[in-house]
């Protein structure tokens, strides 16, 4: 599973990366987490607000820090 957290590095973006890492550790899901800070790369996903979470190419969350329960539901599908 490929997970991308899109954002320039603001506190909300960092909180999102940390939440994703915690969920992956707790669930044992095999996933690669990538933090994307490049504005042009972020725009390629059609995202204009951050933080955003993209799982296997599908945008799951835009403009907010997702709750861990939400992330768990996304990675268990």
Please write out the topology:
Layout: E1 2-6, H1 11-27, E2 32-36, H2 39-44, E3 52-55, E4 58-62, H3 68-76
Parallel strand pairs: 1-2
Antiparallel strand pairs: 1-3, 3-4
Helix pairs in contact: 1-3
Radius of gyration: 11 Å
Low-pLDDT runs: none
> How large is the count of helical segments?
3
- Average the pLDDT over all residues and give the rounded result: 95
CATH superfamily: Glutaredoxin
Percentage of helical residues? 40-55%
Oligomer: single chain
How many domains comprise the coordinates? 1
Secondary-structure element sequence?
EHEHEEH
Main structural class = alpha+beta
**CA(first)-CA(last) distance:** 11 Å
Largest sheet, strands/sense/barrel: 4 strands, mixed
How much strand? 15-25%
User: What's the CATH architecture name?
Assistant: 3-Layer(aba) Sandwich
What's the level 1 CATH class? Alpha Beta
Overall 3D geometry? globular
